[in-house]
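Thought: the user wants the 3D structure for the chain below. I'll pass the sequence to the structure tool as-is, report back what it returns, then summarize two notable features.
Action: structure_tool
Action Input:
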Amino acid sequence: MDYEPDAEFDRVPPSFDRMKNVVRGAEAQGFNPGLIVLLLVGGLILLFLVGNYVLYVYAQKTLPPKKKKPVSKKKMKRERLKQGVSAPGE
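Observation:
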């Protein structure tokens, strides 16, 4: 028994025929411009963050440690009094 499809099933409705053209047109068009912009902006942000991290690591290795502010005499005196040690000269 050979299978022979009916003539009814061979015909494709016109709406589906138009859809094939739409799909072909989208395929030939190339990338979506919105996608290109999104990838470009995302790439630039990623590049910025990676660059900042690299500069931060480089600065931590090469720059000398930050100097601490000198403690004022008044604060030193107050600390000694808190600990119970009398300040010299009193």
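Final Answer: Structure generated. The helical segments are 7-10, 14-29, 33-62, 73-83. The chain has one domain: 17-81.
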